[in-house]
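for the writeup, i need someone to sanity check this before i put it in the appendix. the sequnce is what the collaborator sent (i think, or maybe the updated version? ugh). structure was predicted straight from it, no edits. if anything looks off just tell me and ill rerun, i have time this weekend
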Amino acid sequence: MAHVPLIPIGSPREAVTDPRTFSDHREALLSLEDRLRQRRAEIFLGWGDRYIARVHQKGKLTARERVARLIDPGTRTFEVGTFVNDGVIFGDNLRSPGAGVVTAFCRVEGRWCMVIANDNTVASGSWWPKTPEKIERAQQMALRLRLPTIYLVDCSGLFLPEQSRTFPGATGAGHIFKMNSLLSAAGVPQLAGVFGDCIAGGGYMPIISDKVYMTEQAYMVIAGAALIKGAKSLKMTSLDIGGPEVHVHQSGCADVRVPSDEVLIDCLRRELRDLPSSAAGYYRAGAGDIEPNFPTHELCGLIPPDHRESYDAHQVLARLCDQSLFWEVMPQLGEEMICGVGRLGGLYAGFIINRQGLVGDPERRGAPRPGSILYRAGIAKISAFSRACDADGIPLIWLQDIAGFDIGAEAERQGLLSYGSSLIYTNSTNQVPMFTVLLRKASGAGYYAMAGLPYDPVVQLSTCISRLSVMEGRTLAIATYNTKLGDDFQILSQDPAERQAIHEGMRAVERRIEQDMDPYIAARQMDTDEIIELGELRAYLRALVDMSYQSTGYRRIKNPRIWSMHDLQVLTGGVF
């Protein structure tokens, strides 16, 4: 039973698609990914070179320079929330790139951490609309994975002209401090480095941390010097009110004072060194981190940008899993869904992906029907697999390319609503870390059922060709104008002016819905956590799975001898 029957899957690119088709798909996607890199680069500059120079003139580092010095040499960051507020204009033509805060998974002294760093090139690191939610989302990720959390604080508090959109509400700025408390209650290490302005809410954020460092330029105050001068007619500097002399030596709100940004970051690294190391090596049990037999970068030519074109989902898995080895569970059931176990970085993970193209209908003697849709057997299959992953402690990766649930009289007769409810219940109550990737389509209730963001995956990733919506633009236009269309969806009216008005109205609806499906809009609104290149997908997933195994004692992780997955395979007629 301990044997996990991983077998080779996938084929060389030449056997999967012809060179011209591969090249066409690749060129179309690379154009979109070039734009992704450009937009990232613009956000990484914050408010630009002028403000970066201003930070340097003060003898300080920018937020991203601090992060670069903090992480282990030769490693990369995995940012989340890069595009929050992207393209949004505030007040007098102001922008808040990345909502004025950097949130990223980083390796520090060999341990995965969540780093939250105020971008001091954007209005002195102040909090804009969506900044609190972005910070809270990062804290939630850290809590779910029990990752040490590091705050690099340089924050002048709320951006006051927009306070009504930042201060109140269930996810307003004050909720950050509740998340601080929940992390502390769960025993998640929190470290804070205070580098400069730390006013009002910015002053509260580091206080619940286990260790607080301050540079000589830093201060933490409930109210800054200008406000105190107005309220109490006292002339004092913010350093006088709440600098390191006060908080390290008098109030005890901070622990250590250091001379510079660089020294503070070195101290944070030393603190991380004293924490328990990652358990991932233990759970790897000697398995190596071996690249797939087929390169991940080929995904950009194998997955068509046009959502109406199909592809082989097994080829995607073959370019994600270590050595292109995969154990498909229950392959004889629910053909529209593929689920099974593979390794990422030597660690086991469960995978669920939608099959594309045509699949057989077992209730009509194998007659073909569209894939990328949830039918009864497929729903039951992935519900059982999701429960098994939860029971066995296997991190679960959902690879969505779904058009929704089956509809019609037969679907209702079969009780798809109840089967879907069972799947939703399963994913809502799972304790195992789940990660969701929107490869292309993420439509309707199918998006929900396959662990879309409302169902609390730890992280949801999108690609440049993701399409998140209730339904496609053309379908919604038909539904909107249904009373004016015949059974063949043609306009009924014979009046030329009315026909033209209906045609233009349908086109306007279709265009608006197509625009709304832009992944950058989803990322701007925090409806997805990050947009990534397809070639980055394995690296992101490998890092997330590694994080899932880092901390011990907070969730069940079973060894393969006692996996319920084996029982599931036998009971459904599978063989080993």
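The chain has a mean pLDDT of 90. DSSP finds 23 helices and 20 strands in the chain.
thx in advance!!
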